[in-house]
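User: Can you help me understand a structure? I only have the sequence.
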Amino acid sequence: MRRVSRIAVAGTATASLALALSACGGTSSDASSSSAGGKDLGLAIAYDVGGKGDQSFNDAAYEGLKKAESEFGYKTADQEPKDGESDDDKAARLINLAKMGYNPVVGIGYSYAPAVEQAAKKYPKTTFGIVDDASKTGKNIADLVFQENEVSYLAGVTAAMKTKSNTVGFVGGVDNALINKFEAGFTKGVKDTKKNVQVKVQYLDEDPAKGFASPDLGKAAAEKQIEDGADVVYHAAGLSGQGVIEAAAGAKKYAIGVDSDQYNQKALAAYKKYIITSATKGVAESIYKLAKSVEDGKPETGVVTGNLKSGEVALADSNPEFKNDAKLQAALKKAEAGIVDGTIQVPVK
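Assistant: Let's start by predicting it. Here is the structure, written out as C-alpha cells:
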C-alpha cells in the first residue's frame, strides 16, 4: 500500500505580488517589481474556510504552492478568506489574481464553484482549478476531486481493528455530499471488518464557516462520542478537527486525522501519540500537477480524479504503532486490493 506523509508548512510568507484589495481578503504576498500579466507570475491559490494553518486541507494546498514556487522559480500568491464573504467576494478574489497575471488560479474547496465559473468566463486564457468540486466545467477549468470514500473505508478498517469498546465515532464539519463520502466509506469499512461495532455520527454545523473552522465544536462533539463509549474517532472537519484530536488525546483514545498527515503537524505535536493515522488526499500534488501542466504549455482541464489506485488517497503511516501492526497492515492491504479490483464496492452516501 502506498503511504503518504505530508508536513504542512504554515505561517511562512510567499514572495509574491501584494494583493490587499478589500474585496479579495488577506494575503501573504509581496513583490511590487512584478507587472500585471508578466511571465514571472505563476500559481495562485485562494484558501477555504479555516485558512492556512488548519493543519489539514488548506495547509495541504499550501504545500502544493510551495513545491511549484520552488521548482519553477516564479512568483506565487496565496489568499485568505474573509468572514461571511459572498460568492461575489470569492469571484472578485479570483478575477483579481487572474488580472494580475497569475496562472493557474485555484479555489481551495467546493464553495468556490460559482466564483471559478465566473472568473473562468472573464479570463478564458487563464487556467482555473477548483478542489473538491466537479459541478462547473469549461475549456479552462480543472476540477480536482478525490474518492475520499475509498481511503475512508481503510480508516474504518483501522478503527474497527483498534477499538476495544466496539464503539467508534465520526465527526463531519458539514452534512453535505462531500463529507457524506467520508462517513459512508468509514462506516462501510467498520462494518465489513466487525459487524457489531457501533458508529456514532455527528455533524457540527450547517454553516461551513462554523463547521470547518470551530475547534471548540469539534472538541465538544468528540467528547460526547467518547463519553458514549467511542474509543476511536475519525474526523472530516478541517480546522474543527483539531478539537476532535485534542478531545481524543485528552481521553487517551485514538483519533484518525484527515487530508494531511496530522501526526506530523507541529501544532498537534502534543497529541501525536493518539493520532493513529490520517486519511490523506493529494491536494498538494494535484495543485502542483496543475501548475506544471500550465508551465509546460499543456494546461490540464476537465475532471481529474485521485483515488487509491492512483495513490492520491492513502493512509499515512507516520505513527510507528500503526505502521508496525502486522495484523492491521495485512487487513488494510487486503481491503485496498479489493477496492482497486472492484471486489469491494464503497458507497458515497
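Now, to help you interpret it: DSSP finds eleven helices and twelve strands in the chain. The radius of gyration is 20 Å. Let me know which part you'd like to focus on.
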